[in-house]
Each structure stands twice: as C-alpha cells, then as structure tokens.
Amino acid sequence: MSKCACSCWVGLLCLGLVACSDDTTPEPDTGLDMTIIDQGPTPDGPTAEASADGPVADIAQTDGPTSDGPRPDLPVYDGPKPDAVVPDGPPVTPPTLVCTAAKWCWANPLPQNNPLRGVWGTGATDVWIVGYNGTIIHWNGTAWEGTPSGTSNVLFGVWGSSATDVWAVGQGGVILHWTGTAWSSVTSPTSNQLNAVWGSGASDVYAVGSGGTVVHYNGASWSTVSSSGAGSSTLNGVWGSSASDVWVVGASGKLLRYSGTAWSTETSPITSTLYGVWGSGASDIWTVGTSGKVARYNGTSWATVTSGTSKALYSVWGSGASDVWVGGADGTIVHYNGTAFSTSTSNTTSNVSGMWGSGASNVYGVGSNGIIQHYDGSAWSSAVTGETVTINNMWTNGPNDAWAISGIILRWTGSSWTKATVPTSGGTYYGAWGSSPTNLWVAGSGGHMLHYTGTWTHSTVGSTAFYSMWGSGASDIWAVGAYGTAQRYNGTSWNSVTTGTSNVLRSIWGSSASDVWAVGAGGTIVHWTGSAWSTATSGTTKYLYGVWGSSASNIWAVGDTGTILHYNGSAWSAATSNTTQALYAVWGSGASDVWAVGYNGTILHYNGTAWSAAETGVYVTLYGIHGSSATDVRIGGYNGTILHRGP
Questions:
Q1: What is the rounded CA–CA span in Å between residue 312 and residue 509?
Q2: Are 592 and 608 in contact (CB under 8 A)?
Q3: What sign results for the dihedral spanned by CA atoms 125, 126, 132, 135?
Q4: β partners of residue 372
Q5: What is the pLDDT of residues 400-451, one digit of tens each?
Q6: Is 616 helix (H, G, I), strand (E, B) or coil?
Q7: How many C-beta neighbours within 10 Å does residue 365 have?
C-alpha cells in the first residue's frame, strides 16, 4: 500500500495529495448537489432534513459570533457525544495516525474527523471509507490507516470488484482507481459530480451523479451513457443484480433500469428524492429516501414499506432478504428482519450516509463528523476513539506537553491525550496562557478561571465571560472578554482594568508588559502602553478574533471574511489573505512563519512575504492554534479536532 512520505510523530499514514508537499488546496466547490455536506457545527449537531434534490448541509455553521458573546457555534459542554464511546467489540485496535500531505496529522479524534460518505470492502479485513477533502481510509483488520488519494475533492462513493480493483468517485467528476498499491486518477468523461459507483465486475462499472449523469467503464475506459433517460435529474444511487439488471435512483423518485440492452424509466411509488439502492437479488431490491421513505421491489413491482421513521434515509445494505440495514439523518439506523423495520440504537447523533458489511455480524455505518459506527451482531458502537467536544484553544509547552481547552481540558504528555481532572465549575473555557509547564491559567464563561500548578484550582473572577489570555510573566497576566472586560493578575490577585470599549474583546497578545494589544467585535483594537488602554484605528468594522506578533513592530490580527491586518510599529493596515473564510486564530514561530486558521479547515501560512492557503486535507472548522516551534504546532477545532504538525 502506498504511503506518503510524511514524518509526523510515529508510524504515520497520509491522506490527500500523493506527495508530501505544501501544495495549495483549492477552495471547496460550492456547487455540490448531493449535499450531505459538512460545513461546520451547530450547537447540537446535524439536524437538517433533505430537500427535493438532495440532503442539505448536515452541519450548518455560522460564520462568526454575535457582538456580545462567544461564537454561537460553541456549545456549552454537557458531556461527550455518544459517538465518542470507545467500542467494546472490533475494531478496537488504536489506529495509526492519519496525516495529510502537508504533515498535518490527526491527533484527536482517531482515526480522523472529516465527514465520511461511502464505505465498501471485500471482507472483514479489507474495508475502504471515502469522504471530504479526498479522504480515503482503510481498515486492514488491525488498524485504520490513511492512503493518499491525490485529490482534495469530496469523494461520495466507493466500490470494487476485488481487493486490487477498487473505484472511488466524487466532486467534479473525479474518478480514482486502486490497483492494490496506490490510488490514481483516471480520465473521467464528465465534470459533473458523481455520487455513487457500482459494478457487476471488473469490466462493467457504473457511476451516477448530478445532471442525470451516468458513466460506464468497460474494462478499458470510462464513457458517458447518453440513453439512460435520466434527463437532468440528480442521480444518487446505483446497484444491480447482474450486468443485465442495473437500477439507478435519484431526485423526484427517479427510478431507472438497464436490462443489458436498453434503459427504461420505471414507475416509482415514491415521488420525493431517493438516495440509496441495494438488493439481495433480482427479486428483492430496496430503495430509501427523504422523510423515512422506503420502497421494495419483488421482481414485478415496487411498493412502499413502513420504515418507522420520518428522518431522511441515505443508505441501505443487507446481508440477505431478512437482514437489511438503513442509515439516515441524526444517527438514524433502522433494521428489517424479514417482517418489519425496527429502530436500532446507533449510539450516534450524526448523519449515517454510507453503509456496508461483510456479513450479518460485521456492518459499518459512516457519515458526518467522521463517524465510523460498527455492528458486531448484537449492538452498534463507535470505531472512533477520543473526545468530540469542540476545542476552543490550544497551549503548547513543547513536543511532549500540550493542552487543549474547551468545556473539558485535555493534556498531551508525549504518548496520548487524556482528560484532566479539574474542579467542577460548569464553565466552558476559551483562553489559556502559561509561563511554565507547572503554571497554566485557563479562563472562560461566567468569569470561571482554572489555575494549574501541578494540581488544578478553580476561582471566579467577576461574572463576565473571558475569551483570551496573555501574560508577560507569572506575575503579569491579562484576561479579556465580553463587554470590553479586562482583568489583570499581579501575582496575587486579579483586578479589573478599564479598556475604554464595551465591545467584546476576543484575543489578546503583547510584546512586553507595556505593549499589549486586544482585538474584538466591530474591528475593535485597543492598546495598553503600561498605564492605560487606548483605542487604535483598525480601518475595518469586521469582527476580529485573533491577534499575535513576533515583535512590537510586527503584529497580525485576523477576523471575519478573511480579514487580516498588520501592524508595523506605527499603524495598522489591511493585508491580502486570498480567502473570504472567517479566520479565528493566528500564531507563529517567527516573523517568517505565521499561521492563521478558521472556517471549514482553512489554514493560511505567511512566509515572510505573502499569505497563501496551505493544503490541509481538513474540512472541519478550526478555532485555536499554538506551538512551541516551527516543527511543533497544534490546532484545535470542531468536534474534538486536534491536528499536529511535526518535523
């Protein structure tokens, strides 16, 4: 199996581009017509129902906070999600780290956190899963591993005729082929999105997608099928019992059938969108779609079947006529036992967009938030390990000592991330700063503060939320937050300091005790000169989320719609970011190595001359970044995301 030449921590495997380069990832295509699209978090996870032409974005995300509080997309933590449970059945082996071509490695949750769309395998020890940003991961019977796909496009479907003949299709008409050693791009006859792939054998493979697209592989090349009768309808699923019995489903209840010689449009008992199709044989075929709709073909005609749910259903697979599984919105999984459907406890609230199994006691469901649910014959459990609460900030003391800040506190000690035992406070934490490995401050909602000196203590400083911290030393620490609040620690106590603004202050950084900057709502920038805060002219009204500098005359601020400002020692001015995505944090190891992170996996890098987009292979929103050096950088984000970039 081909591995990319990353060197990040230990035994790493890679996603995304074939070579470990810093190539730029293109902006996501906004024309995805079979959405099941993950754009970022809502407080409670994906809830959107499907539209007539395809499921809508299943994790809708706001682009920034309101002016008087934290980002609305950061929920108050109330415990780990059900899909963070470590499974008690296979697969349980801790996965090797999955890395992108640019050396960003998933550290939590494992194996990774990108949305997943399709799953297929040859057996229990050979399972392929595909998803966003060209994600391809493989289960080898022992561990999950990443393989370079060579694309950053979304991959929606995967199917193969054998372990050395596997196809993946997706956004922009991309078609990839696995021959047993590596994935490679194959010439596609279409630029339309391809949503599903299936074949009767190595020389008879179909892929279907948007705009009525049907393409066929004859063993030598792919070509467009122009006589399918699909019109312009979006096609979402394909399956057949043989080369002369192929079924395609799509928007508005579209049902197409290929007899081996001609295509025909079949009468559908469902007029809303159909997403998935599967059968145990020519006389037992199932299709699923919006609002819990299910229909079954008995060899003569189609009839609806009661599913027991009103949720959108995206995927269907079974081991036989009396063992059929269906996955859908909000963690919905229903099971047909030969007589009727019943609801199964999925142990996830994320959308289940792909299903496949090697047998009745080895079934997978994959979907949004990177879920990989596994059924062992008795219960569903998660194959994903780690915490899934959104990470708001990071603090790094060195390669073997780092912290992730949220409603919980996680610590990296060189081998694993573990949850720290902290005094119960009920707070969600956003800001962190430390002067040493045994002196760390954390601040958050409701004035809550935690202090680590080898053990944790809790205190409350006022009742206003704090969003950021910075200090010049152990006896000079600032915390800023809502309503222009600023508190300063003198080594003994915290004391309120007037900032001259009532706007939210979201980030603070300084070059010394007498040169401190804070930024926030409405383009607010305030400056501490050692005796008082004063307002600085920012030249923008955009919300500013992050500030960091390498010196008193080289400071960066980032914010909404790709806003980047630079301070040269005398004035702030706008810099070109080449993105319109919200940027939530900025940090660097020096003047020529600065990173900014934000919405939908956006990572920008400044090399001392210009900002450019960095290839990430990541599609979740990123909220915090910190490092100890250029070769030890960590990023935190949505759904527990922790990324590490090492040597």
A1: 47
A2: yes
A3: positive
A4: 366
A5: 999 999 999 999 999 899 999 999 767 899 999 999 999 999 999 999 999 9
A6: coil
A7: 33
| Closest CA relative to residue 516, chosen from 493, 559, 547 | 547
Concatenated DSSP letters of 318-331: EEETTEEEEEEGGG
pTM of the complete model: 0.84
Q: What is the pLDDT of residue 96?
A: 62
Cα separation, 373 vs 327, whole angstroms: 11
Distance (Å, whole) CA 541 – CA 137: 43
CB 155 within 8 A of CB 149: yes
CA gap 396, 475 in Å, rounded = 20
d(CA 566, CA 327): 48
Q: Please check the confidence at residue 375 and state whether its pLDDT lies above 50.
A: yes
DSSP 139-192: E-SS-EEE---S--S-EEEEEEEETTEEEEEEGGG-EEEE-SS-EEE---S--S
β-strands 13-15, 98-100 pairing: parallel
Residue 311, C-beta contacts closer than 8 angstroms, at least 6 positions apart: 49, 291, 292, 328, 329, 330, 332
Between vectors from CA 71 to CA 70 and to CA 74, what angle results, nearest 5°? 100
Confidence check: pLDDT of 638 > 70 = yes
Which residues, 6 or more positions from 415, have their beta carbon under 8 angstroms from its beta carbon? none
What is the Cα–Cα distance from 377 to 89, expressed in whole angstroms?
Answer: 10
Cis peptide before 111 (omega within 30 of 0): yes
Using only C-alpha atoms, what is the Rg of the chain? 26
What is the b/e burial string over 131-152, where b = at least 16 CB atoms within 10 angstroms of the residue's CB? bbbbbbbbbeeebbbbbbbbbb
Share of the chain above pLDDT 70, in %: 85
Q: Do domains 82-382 and 393-645 have the same CATH topology?
A: yes
Q: How far apart are CA 594 and CA 212, in angstroms?
A: 45
Q: Is residue 483 pLDDT above 60, yes or no?
A: yes
- What's the one-letter identity of residue 503? N
- What pLDDT does residue 380 have? 98
Q: Which CATH architecture has domain 82-382?
A: 7 Propeller (2.130)
Question: Cα–Cα distances in Å, from 276 out to 71, 529, 563, 630?
Answer: 36, 63, 41, 46
Residue pair 406/395 in contact (Cβ under 8 Å)? The answer is: no
Tokens at residue 558, please? 């980032």
Domain at 393-645: CATH code: 2.130.10.10
Plot region of 559 (φ>0 → left; ψ -120 to 50 → alpha; else → beta): beta
Does 463 score more than 60 pLDDT?
yes
* Percentage of the chain exceeding pLDDT 90: 81
Residue 48 has pLDDT above 80, yes or no: no
Q: Which of 1, 5, 2 lies closest to 102 in space, CA to CA?
A: 5
Residue 99: the pLDDT is: 85
Length of the chain: 647
Tokens 């906004």 sit at which residue? 30
Torsion of CA 519, 524, 525, 529, to 10 degrees: -110
Residue ranges per structural domain of the chain = 82-382, 393-645
Contacts of 226 (CB under 8 A, 6+ apart): none
